[in-house]
Amino acid sequence: MLARGSSLEDACDRICEHAERLAAGVICSIVTVDREGLLHPLAGPTISKTYSDALDGIPIGPDVGSCGTAAHFRRPIAVADIFADPLWIPYRPLADILAKEHGVKACWSSPILRSDGRVLGAFGFYYKDNRGPTPEERMIVAECLDLCSLVLEREEVKADNQRLAFFDSLTGFGNRANFLKTLEDAIEGATAPLSVLLVDIDHLGRVNDAFGHATGDRLILEGQTVARIAAPAAIFRVDADEFAVLIEDRSAEELSAVSTEILRAMENRAPQRNEHLLPVSVTCGGAIFEPSRPPDVPTFLQHANLALHHAKQTARGGFVLYSDDLAGAIANRFRALQTVTSALAEDRIEAHYQPIVSLPTQEIVGLEALCRIRMDGGQILSPGAFAEALQDPSIGHLLTDRMLEQVARDIRYWLDLGLSFQYVSVNVSMADFNQGNLGERIKSVFAHHRTPLKHVVLEVTETVYMDEKDGKVAKAIEELRREGLLVALDDFGTGYASLTHLLDFPVDIIKIDKTFIDRMSDGPGAVIVKALLDMSVGLGTRIVAEGVETEDQAERLLRLGCPYVQGYLFGRPVDRDKATEALRSEVPPSADKVERKSGGP
After folding, report:
1. DSSP conformation letters of 577-588
2. Residues forming a β-bridge with 456
3. Could you point out which of 309, 320, 346, 355 has its C-alpha 20 to 30 Å from the C-alpha of 331?
């Protein structure tokens, strides 16, 4: 029957009917025992449904009627009087049902065992007389037990295979295949908005590498928190570090509220490893569709994945909901990544240099190395066209490595020519600090070109400091400064708590953002620039005004006592050969536009 597609219940009902025909006057039933040791009725075409329902969920034990005791001890149990035997006293209501509906007075139960000896269930004979089994009945039951063991073990293997195919063994949640099938069915029959929320555990790979997979598994099991908050929505583990929640009939505001609750709850979860608490951080992305515009499953999932990817890149630890506008931003980001990836592969990354000038003397004291991409047609692509790629963790550090290689080589070239300059600055991003080996990378490439580290300055934007959460940026900067490198705080004043950054992250150079230089013509702008200049003197740091583009700006800065400037007035970014010409002349080509004055800091 099973081979031909019959259900397990129908097959076991047939076994009971077979036994009842051979043993006249006997009522037969089959119960199963789950992995938690609970009884569940399976078959018994003539047994009372009221009795079967009352039996469901009772745990097996040493004094649990006939079936529960037989399953517990894994041996047959015969009870000649179910109203007087101690095994049945706690279950008198069940005995009353049997007596009332079938006239049953006795019960004989035998365990159904798997081939490895584990109990799978129990096979019961119920008698209307106070008696035990006859020799013939023992032979009948022995035959039935073999059949029951065969079919129950087969179904358990089938169920195990089903679990392996559709459920995650660690969490017990449905897996990716299960999710896709459930989502497909939900979309097909949807009459209300349907949402997919993706929840990604941040930096799980690093936890596995640092503390082992057992610790990582404990983080994954925190998915139970997600399940509790999202209930009764279905939750699935669709990737090593990612869960999917399928939520019906929720608005965008409600989905955002669920995400916020998950994010807040996970922040408070911190599995302990030895004496260390491991903070849990997750990022969420979601998508919603209306029944009037049902997408296909791949498109719907692509929307949710795009939202999650965008959240991980721009709002890690937060939630992003898919929208058409987001799709455009992501497409731009993808094109930028493609541009940079191709340029890296085809060696079209170039370092261009913009002079940093002593404003009082008009001499070039340094250069800022700026990344450029040479396109196939020869045109030069500025960072504005591929800025999105610079923050990508898989691309950003590769660009920095290529820039460091060129800068180290070019500094060596200029030193060999005997040219006079103090330093070349190179921009680094959060992607470089996330790699965790920025200092080693810099030392290695500069040692290869025999270039002293004293000639390089690392420029770190204020946003990198703002992203600081676990101390890695502060630690890396401290190590770099110990190696003799100078560190500049770029775009100063454009973020938040800038003065706090100067306390927590000591730097050697402060670069005043162009925003303040553009506002010097009004009163407040000039006051702020003057305050910054005075502050730098007190802190003992150098200061550079960025984005100086007009003679009026240069003259105002000169009167305020600004020592160093950078901007189009003093030179645009140029390739190495043109930068070499500027260094040979010791002053930028446009320096004669500003009156020369001696002195300065």
Report:
1. HHHHHHHHHSS-
2. 424
3. 346
